[in-house]
Design a protein that fits this description.
The chain is mostly beta strands and 117 residues long. Helix content is 0%, strand content 57%. It contains no helices and eleven strands. Strands 2, 4, 5, 6, 9, 10 and 11 form a seven-stranded mixed beta sheet that branches. Strands 1-3-8-7 form a four-stranded antiparallel beta sheet, with no helix packed on it. Strand 7 and strand 8 form a beta hairpin. The protein is globular and about 40 Å long.
Length: 117
C-alpha cells in the first residue's frame, strides 16, 4: 500500500510557474514508478509525466514537453512536478500516482492548478 498526498497547487497567471509536490508513505518508495496526471473540468484524466524507479527515465505528454519537469527524491519519498510557462489549458486537478510498468495502482486526492489568461 502507498499513500500519496499532493501539494503546491494554486492560481497563477499565464506564463507563470508552479511546483507540485507529492509525499509518499507506505511501501518502499524507490520500488515504484511515479506519475503525474491531470483532469480538466468536463474532460477525462490525462497523463502528464512519469519517472521510473531509478530516476533514469522520464516521459512527458507532448503538450508539456519543454515546460514541465518531473523529478523524485527517493531519500525523502517525494516526487515533484516543476511547471513553467503555464498556459490556461494547463488548468486542472493534478494527481500523483504510483505503480509499476505503466499500471498505476495508487492515487492521491489531487491538487488544483488554475492558470488565468
Amino acid at each position: 500500500q502507498v499513500r500519496l498526498v499532493e501539494s503546491g497547487g494554486g492560481l497563477v497567471q499565464a506564463g507563470g510557474s508552479l511546483r507540485l509536490s507529492c509525499a509518499a508513505s507506505g511501501r518502499t518508495f524507490n520500488s515504484v514508478d511515479m506519475g503525474w496526471f491531470r483532469q480538466a473540468p468536463g474532460k477525462e484524466r490525462e497523463f502528464v509525466a512519469a519517472i521510473r524507479r531509478s530516476s533514469s527515465s522520464t516521459t512527458y505528454a507532448d503538450s508539456v514537453k519543454g515546460r514541465f519537469t518531473i523529478s523524485r527524491d527517493n531519500a525523502q519519498n517525494m516526487v515533484y512536478l516543476q511547471m513553467n510557462s503555464l498556459k490556461p489549458e494547463d488548468t486542472g486537478l493534478y494527481y500523483c500516482a504510483a505503480g509499476l510498468t505503466g499500471t498505476y495502482l495508487y492515487w492521491g486526492q489531487g491538487t488544483q492548478v488554475t492558470v488565468s489568461s
